[in-house]
Each structure stands twice: as C-alpha cells, then as structure tokens.
TrEMBL record:
Coiled coil: none
Protein name: Endonuclease/exonuclease/phosphatase domain-containing protein
A GO molecular-function annotation: catalytic activity
Domain of life: Eukaryota
Organism name: Araneus ventricosus
Length: 275
C-alpha cells in the first residue's frame, strides 16, 4: 500500500505552516499539542480525520476489504501516561473488531520492546496492551530507536489489533540520518488500496441501431435461457448470459474509454473531508 507516516516528536516540527521539506500536497493530521501526527503523502488514499485529542490523532484509511485506523500518540516522560492511554482507549473502544494500527512514543521502559528494565510507565503501558488484546510489532533484537550522546533507548513502538496482525510483514529501524535523536522506523503492512478500471462506452454520438443489430443474434438464445429457468441458479446463469451478450454487442458498436475508478469507501463522506 502507499506510504503512511506515523510521527511522534518532542518538538513541534509541523507547527510552522511553511516548514521546508514537507510538500504542501501531503495531508498532515496533527494532535492538538502538535506532538503527534499522521502524514499521508499519497493522494491515492482517502483519509478521514476521526479523532484529534491533546496527545493523539486518529485517521481512517480504506485498505483492502475494510478500513484501517492509524493512531499516532505521544506522551512526554514528565506527563501523566494515563491521559494518553485513555485517549487511545476511547478510540479503540469506539472501533470494535476493526483494524487499528498505533505508532507511539510513550517514553516507558519495558523489556517487551527492548529495554533492560521496567519502570512505572512501562508497566502501565503493558497493562494497557494486555487489556486491549493488542500486539507489539517491534523486533525483539532491534537497535535503539533513540540515541542522544551516551544515552540510548527504545521509547518508540507500534501496536496493532488482532484483525491486522497477519498484515505486519516487516518492522525495522533504519540507519539513515533522521535529523533527530530518534531513528526512522519502517513498518511494512501487507495490504492494498482498492482501485479498479472500468470500460466506459461513448453512446452520446449514436450507433444505437448498430448496437441493436449486433445484439439481435443473441436474442433467441437469451429468451430460451430465461424461459427454461427453473430455479435461482438458472436465473443467475441466464442473467450472466444477458450481461455478456450486451457487453459483446457494445464492444462491437461503440467506442470505448478506460476510466480509473477509486471508489470512496462506504464510511467516507464529503462531510468528513470538510472536517
């Protein structure tokens, strides 16, 4: 699927509207504090902001057969971790049985995501993960995601619900410079954005008589198929035959134009885009 960037940071990187390096065509969804964000570089993705809290932001994107909600969260090491966990909890509770991906910097120590020790914040996060049946995506042998002088740590991690655990294909910390004391983390999600192409017939300029002429050889077989139908299966087969015959006649009669179709998901409305 196209890229989705989950960002959590201590400095307000995107609080300046004309910040260099971030193309204006990218969609940026910030938390109220401007310390968590979901960034959508691709216009192929229909993204809808569904929650904007002090420490978290949630965006829903249509992937595969159902939508996926991406949540970015940040909690300062000096703040109450429960406030951020409650914001995430509210969103998870409102989306039962849906696919949810969480990228977070919660500044908690726990051996589950790389640290050699466990602190009170890490314990609170662990209890939250277990209570919500979430899965940690981090690689157990991943290098530190945070380095500053002689300090190092693993404050950054990602979680997902059971519905998408099979789609997490890879999780790795990148070595390329990030212009920050946090490393880039690349997570590959094995999913797709549904796009399709349909054939459009140019009927405005006539050729209808030619269409009827091309359809005529199929009429008798179509009538027999419907008259001989005895059950639902026969009706479905006759209907499929009718559709194929009409398409064949159209192909012989009208000019065609292939048109890309990127359908809006059933949850996506213009009101969401306006918001």
């Amino acid at each position: 699927m196209p890229s989705v960037l989950i960002v959590a940071y201590e400095a307000s990187m995107f609080s300046t509207p004309n910040l260099g390096g971030i193309p204006q065509s990218w969609n940026i969804f910030n938390s109220i504090s401007n310390k968590a964000a979901v960034i959508i570089p691709s216009r192929q993705l229909h993204a809808a902001l569904i929650s904007c809290k002090q420490n978290t932001v949630a965006v829903k994107i249509q992937t595969g057969q159902q939508p996926t909600t991406f949540i970015s969260a940040y909690s300062s090491p000096y703040s109450n971790i429960q406030e951020t966990l409650l914001e995430i909890q509210e969103k998870i509770s409102s989306l039962p049985r849906e696919k949810i991906f969480i990228g977070a910097d919660l500044n908690g120590h726990n051996t589950l995501w790389g640290y050699n020790d466990v602190d009170s914040r890490g314990t609170a996060i662990e209890k939250f993960i277990l209570a919500n049946n979430l899965f940690i995506n981090n690689s157990s042998d991943a290098p530190p995601t945070f380095t500053r002088n002689t300090s190092k740590g693993w404050p950054d991690f990602s979680l997902c619900t059971q519905q998408m655990i099979g789609e997490i294909a890879n999780w790795e910390g990148l070595e390329e410079p990030s212009l920050s004391d946090h490393q880039y983390i690349k997570i590959t999600i094995d999913s797709s954005v549904k796009n399709c192409t349909f054939t459009r017939y140019k009927t405005r300029h006539g050729n209808h008589n030619i269409f009827l002429k091309n359809l005529n050889p199929y009429v008798n077989s179509l009538l027999r198929a419907f008259r001989n139908s005895q059950n639902e299966k026969d009706i479905n087969e006759a209907t499929n035959l009718l559709q194929n015959c009409v398409i064949e006649a159209c192909n012989k009669s009208y000019r065609t134009k292939n048109q890309n179709l990127s359908p809006n998901p059933n949850w996506y409305t213009q009101d969401l885009e306006i918001e």
